[in-house]
Amino acid sequence: MSIPPTISQYWQHQGMSRRDFLQFCAMTAAAMALPITMVSRIAAALENQPRPATIWLNFQDCTGCTESMMRADAPSLERLLFDLISLDYHHTLQAAAGESAELARTQAMVANEGNYLLIVEGSIPTDQAGYATTAGVSNQDLFIEAAENAKAIIAIGTCASYGGIARAYPNPTGAKSVGELLTNNKPLINIPGCPPLPVAITGVIVHFLTFGEWPLLDNLQRPLAFFGRTVHDRCSRRAFYEKGLFASRFDDPGAKTGWCLYQLGCKGPFTYNACATTKWNDGVSFPMEAGHGCLGCSQPYFWDNDSFYRPLS
Ligand code: SF4
Ligand code: SF4
């Protein structure tokens, strides 16, 4: 059996230079708020380990999380996510279908028993098994089977982390989050967001490969490096909030000048996420910079938390 290349060997084969590799390690350390001394440790981990076998299951979701990660078009932390892992099964991206796809999944789970990463996108219906099935297997059974021998589990997006839109009142399918259905003690991390920040996913996987554990988490199992502060804390409109300068319409002169969008329903003050610092689309912008308030998408049950356009107070 041939020895799989390490992550750095794989990237080298893909055309990545040594300089870009070290830059990736430095950017990841910075994104994870790790000291600069950890860059060499990250580099050593990626130089010595193969890409982790990964099973990616899509349940009740819009596949927006996957779409978001595929849209990155520059050599960034986002783009490298799919190069960092060995994607053995992905409902949305795989070319295989039917029995051959399911065979690939079970073979990958057996070959990597106890060592594969399980990534879940979407909530899991629990009211009736027939609400959502893959190859005749209910989402719930599929999840429990895959979680049994996973090394660690990542719930990607707000649906997998908290139930998302499928769980919004009246929750007709009995949608539940990954954490609610996990019956073993496998390490679980939530990366909520609608969609989640791709850099947060890349960052926590690199951390797990380097240190063998998830980074520090908050009480909702979210990595503190990305969810330790509110969007409001780092918002470019914050100075206007402090001065009491609030836009009253999305197209008024104040909004265009950069005044705060609080009166237009912005949920930034109670939303924990790193959008204002990492930004979106390879660092181009984030919602408040583009002129719209935060919807609170990385907080539990945000679909049921009143109107997106009603002020918090
Ligand atoms: S626009 Fe929202 S996040 Fe930005 S300062 Fe105003 S309330 Fe805070
Ligand atoms: S700004 Fe708010 S609603 Fe928009 S992606 Fe970030 S956390 Fe979600």
TrEMBL record:
GO terms for cellular component: [Ni-Fe] hydrogenase complex; cell envelope; ferredoxin hydrogenase complex; membrane. It holds the Pfam family NiFe_hyd_SSU_C. Gene3D superfamilies: Cytochrome-c3 hydrogenase, C-terminal domain (4.10.480.10), NADH:ubiquinone oxidoreductase-like, 20kDa subunit (3.40.50.700). It is an enzyme of class 1 (oxidoreductase). Keywords: 3Fe-4S, 4Fe-4S, Iron, Iron-sulfur, Membrane, Metal-binding, Oxidoreductase, Signal, Transmembrane, Transmembrane helix. The keyword Metal-binding applies. The keyword Signal applies. Residues 62-207 form the NADH:ubiquinone oxidoreductase-like 20kDa subunit domain. Belongs to the [NiFe]/[NiFeSe] hydrogenase small subunit family. Heterodimer of a large and a small subunit. This is hydrogenase (acceptor). The lineage of its organism: Bacteria, Pseudomonadati, Pseudomonadota, Gammaproteobacteria, Thiotrichales.
